């Protein structure tokens, strides 16, 4: 068995994820929406599972994530929690569910009670109070910057972010402010690889990238993309891990090993 695929006997925790980031061991994360895949991913060594609002696209067949509800995320989180044993389970707060610290708290409590161990929210400086409010009340916060799909109509599409010097500086200011407010981790989506590296070095919290280059503390992909079952358009950062494999378990193990060995993402997956 590959040295990167130990039979994990203890649960992945936030302190463990910080330790991995500090030691340079890459964190392998995938989205997950049901119990069977949760069991498989956990057994294949995936460190973190995300019940993403991408379920709006891959499970519900929508064009954007905007129609996803807190109850949808809570339902899928309960399913994933039943199948998962040791991976660290995170859930997206959907569009419209965290407009104020109080509503964010009420909705985050529902997701934590469904089994999430951390919640992810998209946005910059305006979320400082919310990050502090949740963190003080026992809810770890995973901040999400760069291409934030809940902002699709403001961004004018799913486009790479942080390309100009000003935009890159703004992202850095936002990341540092969210860390200072108490964020536990940061997700970086579709930004130049050099900026992913710069932000990861500037922060003490672990970063997880999707189209943010190889120097983030870890990587995430949508499971339907990496298993090549999503019928929609594929972003540049997607790699088909089913290619050359004869089972889904092998594809997931290949993803974990490739992330840990730092051979994914390669330049063809980066901006
Ligand atoms: N199946 C799936 N995979 C995802 O990664 C994903 C979802 N759904 N739903 C929510 C968002 C939407 N995402 C997307 C969607 C499209 C691109 C995309 O096509 N990006 C272009 C960049 C174009 C440019 O800026 O020039 C690319 O070529 O990668 C990126 C992220 C990421 N998330
Ligand atoms: C793509 C990841 C980062 C996500 O937010 C989702 O799956 O919803
Ligand atoms: Mg999401």
Automatic annotation (TrEMBL):
Pfam family, one: Pantoate_transf
Keyword terms: Cytoplasm, Magnesium, Metal-binding, Methyltransferase, Pantothenate biosynthesis, Transferase
Active site: 189
Pathways per UniProt: Cofactor biosynthesis; (R)-pantothenate biosynthesis; (R)-pantoate from 3-methyl-2-oxobutanoate: step 1/2
Leading EC class: transferase
EC number: 2.1.2.11
Cofactor stoichiometry and binding remark: Binds 1 Mg(2+) ion per subunit.
Subcellular location: Cytoplasm
GO biological process, one term: pantothenate biosynthetic process
Positions that bind 3-methyl-2-oxobutanoate: 53-54, 92, 120
Function (record text): Catalyzes the reversible reaction in which hydroxymethyl group from 5,10-methylenetetrahydrofolate is transferred onto alpha-ketoisovalerate to form ketopantoate.
Record: residues binding Mg(2+): 53, 92, 122
Family that this chain belongs to: Belongs to the PanB family.
Name of the protein described by the UniProt record: 3-methyl-2-oxobutanoate hydroxymethyltransferase
Highest taxon listed in the record's lineage: Bacteria
Assembly and interaction partners: Homodecamer; pentamer of dimers.
Reactions listed under catalytic activity: (6R)-5,10-methylene-5,6,7,8-tetrahydrofolate + 3-methyl-2-oxobutanoate + H2O = 2-dehydropantoate + (6S)-5,6,7,8-tetrahydrofolate
GO molecular function, one term: magnesium ion binding
Organism: Duganella radicis
């Amino acid at each position: 068995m590959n040295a990167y695929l130990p039979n994990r006997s203890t649960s992945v925790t936030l302190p463990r994820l910080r330790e991995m980031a500090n030691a340079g061991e890459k964190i392998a994360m995938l989205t997950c929406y049901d119990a069977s895949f949760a069991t498989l991913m956990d057994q294949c060594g995936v460190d973190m599972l995300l019940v993403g609002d991408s379920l709006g696209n891959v499970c519900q067949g929508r064009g954007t994530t905007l129609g996803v509800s807190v109850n949808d995320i809570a339902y899928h989180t309960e399913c994933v929690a039943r199948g998962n044993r040791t991976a660290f389970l995170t859930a997206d707060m959907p569009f419209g569910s965290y407009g104020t610290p109080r509503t964010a708290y009420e909705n985050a409590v529902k997701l934590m009670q469904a089994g999430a161990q951390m919640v992810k929210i998209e946005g910059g400086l305006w979320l400082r109070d919310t990050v502090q409010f949740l963190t003080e009340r026992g809810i770890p916060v995973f901040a999400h910057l760069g291409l934030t799909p809940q902002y699709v109509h403001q961004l004018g599409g799913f486009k790479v972010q942080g390309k100009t010097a000003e935009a890159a500086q703004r992202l850095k200011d936002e990341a540092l402010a969210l860390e200072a407010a108490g964020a536990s981790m940061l997700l970086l989506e579709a930004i130049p690889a050099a900026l992913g590296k710069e932000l990861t070095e500037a922060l003490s919290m672990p970063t997880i990238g999707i189209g943010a280059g190889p120097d983030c503390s870890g990587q995430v992909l949508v499971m339907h993309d990496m298993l090549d079952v999503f019928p929609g358009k594929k972003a540049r950062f997607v790699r088909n891990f089913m290619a050359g494999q004869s089972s889904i378990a092998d594809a997931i193990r290949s993803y974990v090993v490739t992330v840990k060995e730092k051979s994914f993402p390669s330049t063809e997956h980066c901006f």
